[in-house]
Design goal:
The chain is α+β, with helices and mostly antiparallel strands. Strands 14, 15, 16, 17, 18, 19, 20 and 21 form an eight-stranded mixed β-sheet that branches. Strands 3-4-9-6-8-7 form a six-stranded mixed β-barrel. 41% of the residues are buried.
């Protein structure tokens, strides 16, 4: 039976190629949008973690007062020994090292981990083995594991790389394994090493110092253990540490530790955006279904006589209902196939988009779940777009075979149905346009935020020194000072500086508490805190950060001279109040060393345009040498045009020293807002697609109405109606439908846009300017859509119209 219905449906589709192409293309766009977004949601939010017992993995967060803190090695050992809720607890931190042994020196992102890190995560190697307890013993041979991505990129997927040796930190490291393609969190590393192979982590001073809080901690809960039970257990350990080491965990700082599920950590940034986009894609599909339903209703008018003949020959209502639903089902299935092609073509863009939010982006693929979802959406689409026309077919049969009638007239029920569909399309389009408008307003406000510095014509690059070769303050200081002197003489360079980190990029943040001279805290009161930045003297000049009071750093701010610092305006206001901080002193080591403030500079948006300004204290590079730094080079030419020359100068200082992340600061700034920009673009694309479909639907409804009312219009014009009156009448009828849709959409938007609150920046979900702008845009689109059929109606020749009837 289905075969017969399907064959007839295909013949009818061939007889109406215009309708068929329009319906398939509309459904393909609607279904494709849903398949594409679902492929992201499925991989990022729905699939379990690709780790063994991933549902039991937790991230530990340590908090001192209002600040999140990492753990020290001593902290980690204490929690590992005292917790009873976890059957594995491991540490992790990320560093940059120089790998030698390939064609040229290469800076590699290195994860420094406990020996059982991959065992706790349940990750089995693709080749070779993971770390063993003996790999973490002092003096053990140095070993490395390669990430899958680095193995593919640098070694072309060659399995014989296992057991090969490379030099790093003046030690020979042997590759013992390659990891499978699993998401890396919290960093995308090239290689991994055990803690004892890291020259910084393995220092006795680092191991014993509880203030050296540099590692992140992960754990695996025991079977049957809940997060709340783990929280109670870890809180008990935190209390024990606070009692045992009151100096390191002062009571006034409200010390606490909190476990969070790893799967929530991996998706917390992505979840709001993905759900909003999935809802937007669903709205696009609803509009597409409404449009195809309207196309079907239009087609039903032309098929009145055919359906009436079939009824006269004995076809029952159920039989015709099934036939019409079969036609809708075939259209939806073909549209679903086209939609899959659309989503498959957009796969690489989707992966790139999702990578801004989560490390699980590489898991996105067109798998069986996506295919099944697409089929279900196609079935649902066939019901949504085909049920209304199939039900309307019952009205068609009665009176369709009128003798002498050259043209059928559309029934009231069918007209009401088409009008309701148009109202619904306009309402949903209004919702989508409001969402896109709010995101656009938010992004425009974000773009106009003053970062506090000038990113134009600034070249940046990261440099990480060899820990063994540059193992003293004098060597580190000499390297960067020599390099900056050479770069300063380069043609096209206005000023050259170095900084611990550049704005808008993740880096090692040094947050520390200190005591201001003459401001002893009350018993139990926490000391003030600030983020410390190490910079060279030309840093403020290179970025055009204004010096508000006092002075900047000078060449005499060196070891042996008074230790100096510069605070930003935020720190001066919060920590010194109405007093001028210039000339005051503070200490971070209980008075052993005092640092004098010599200047106050303007605030900058260090962590992002949408982030609050941090209290910052700058200290000179000569007094606080760095192992890792970013060059900040102000140029008089296009920044990237001198990059090669700067790298040659770098190699002139040290031939084995690579540079990484060579880019302009404007590129860094653009990348920092890439996620909201892409979200805005995608939501805007859905909104424009919905607007186009809705406008087409309005135009189609009014065109059909004009065609069916030619006789009425001819009569009106024959008894004196002017073309302008006919034009206004048709426009009024179409605009009434649009205005009703806008009103319904307005009520829906006031309720639903609250879900966007988390994604907006300095824009409220009820922003009146956005609502007004969207109403005007949608009204103009409806007016244009109605104008063409209205103009055609105003040009009807009454004599011809009456003769046809």
């Amino acid at each position: 039976m289905f075969r017969q219905d399907a064959g007839f449906a295909l013949r009818m589709m061939r007889k109406s190629p215009g309708f068929t192409i329009a319906a398939i293309l509309t459904l393909g766009l609607g279904i494709g949008a849903n398949s594409a977004i679902f492929s992201v949601v499925n991989a990022v939010l729905l699939k379990p973690l690709p780790y063994e017992h991933g549902e039991r993995l937790v991230v530990l967060r340590q908090r001192l007062g209002m600040m999140d803190q990492r753990f020290s090695a001593a902290d980690t050992n204490d929690y590992r020994g005292q917790t009873r809720s976890l059957d594995g607890l491991v540490e992790y931190h990320n560093m940059n090292f120089i790998l030698l042994g390939r064609s040229e020196p290469e800076r590699v992102e290195t994860g420094v981990v406990s020996w059982n890190y991959f065992d706790v995560f349940g990750v089995k190697p693709l080749f070779g083995r993971t770390f063993r307890p003996e790999d973490e013993q002092p003096g053990a041979p140095a070993v490395l594991m390669l990430s899958y991505e680095y193995w593919i990129k640098s070694f072309g997927g060659d399995p014989t790389v296992v057991n090969k040796t490379f030099s790093m930190n003046d030690r020979v490291h042997t590759v013992i394994g390659v990891l499978p393609p699993v998401p890396q969190y919290p960093d995308e590393n090239d290689v991994y090493m055990p803690t004892t192979a890291c020259p910084f982590r393995s220092r006795p001073s680092t191991v014993a110092n509880r203030q050296a809080r540099m590692v992140q901690v992960f754990g695996r809960m025991k079977p049957g253990m809940s997060v709340s039970q783990a929280q109670a257990d870890l809180s008990g350990v935190a209390t024990n540490l606070q009692r045992a080491y009151p100096k390191d965990y002062p009571e006034g700082n409200d010390y606490s530790v909190k476990p969070s599920l790893l799967e929530e950590e991996l998706t917390q940034n992505a979840r709001p955006t993905m759900l909003v986009l999935l809802a937007a894609a669903g709205f696009v599909l609803l509009i597409a279904c409404g449009n195809v339903a309207n196309l079907n209703l239009s087609r039903m008018v032309r098929r009145e006589r055919e359906l009436a003949v079939r009824a006269a020959l004995g076809a029952g209502r159920v039989r015709m209902f099934r036939q019409l639903l079969t036609e809708s089902f075939l259209l939806a299935v073909i549209g679903g196939g086209l939609g899959l092609l659309f989503s498959w073509g957009a796969l690489s863009l989707l992966i790139s988009f999702a990578a801004r939010f989560t490390p699980r982006a590489r898991e996105i693929q067109m798998d069986a779940w996506v295919l099944g979802f697409t089929f279900l959406v196609a079935v649902l689409t066939s019901l949504l777009s085909g049920t209304a026309p199939a039900l309307a077919a019952r009205e068609t049969v009665v009176g369709a075979l009128k003798e002498g009638g050259a043209q059928s007239t559309i029934g009231r029920g069918k007209h009401r149905m088409r009008s309701l569909l148009i109202v619904a399309q306009v309402a949903v389009s209004f919702l989508l346009l409001i969402g896109a408008g709010l995101m656009l307003r938010s992004f425009m406000k974000l773009q106009h935020v003053d970062p506090g510095f000038q990113p134009e014509n600034v070249l940046t690059m990261d440099i990480a020194l060899d820990f063994v070769k540059y193992n003293t303050d004098d060597k580190q200081r000499a390297f960067f000072e020599t390099l900056l002197e050479k770069v300063q003489t380069q043609s096209g360079v206005k000023s050259a500086a170095a900084s611990m980190m550049i704005p808008f990029t993740p880096g090692m943040t040094m947050t520390s508490d200190f005591q201001i001279e003459g401001q002893a805290p009350a018993p139990g009161q926490a000391l003030p805190k600030a983020d410390f930045r190490i910079v060279s003297p030309s840093y403020f000049e290179a970025l055009h950060i204004p010096i508000l009071t006092g002075r900047g750093f000078v060449q005499t701010d060196r070891p042996g001279n008074p230790v100096v610092a510069i605070v930003n305006r935020s720190a001066a206001k919060h920590l010194w109040g109405e007093h001028d901080p210039v000339g005051t002193r503070f200490t971070g080591d209980e008075g052993k060393t005092w640092t004098q403030i010599v200047g106050v500079v303007g605030d900058i948006k260090q962590y992002g345009l949408d982030k609050d300004v941090a209290d910052e204290i700058y200290v000179p590079m000569a007094q606080f040498p760095m192992m890792q730094a970013s060059l900040v080079i102000k140029t008089t030419v296009e920044p990237m045009s001198i990059a090669r020359g700067v790298i040659e100068l770098l190699h002139a200082v040290d031939p084995n020293q690579p540079a990484a992340r060579v880019q302009s600061l404007e590129q860094v700034r653009a990348e920092s807002v890439a996620a909201p920009r892409l979200t805005t673009n995608l939501l805007g694309l859905f909104a424009l697609l919905a607007l186009a479909i809705a406008a087409t639907g309005i135009g189609g409804v009014m065109a059909l109405a004009v065609g069916q009312r030619r006789h009425e219009i001819g009569v009106r014009m024959a008894i004196g109606a002017r073309p302008g009156e006919i034009l206004r009448m048709i426009l009024r009828q179409g605009m009434v439908l649009a205005l009703v849709g806008v009103a319904l959409g307005l009520f829906g938007a006031l309720w639903l846009t609250r879900l966007l609150q988390q994604l907006l920046f300095e824009v409220t979900p009820t922003d009146p300017l956005t609502y007004l702008g969207v109403a005007v845009v949608l009204g103009l689109a409806a007016l244009v859509a109605c104008y063409v059929p209205a103009r055609r109606a105003s040009r009807v020749d009454p004599i011809i119209a009456l003769r046809i009837e």
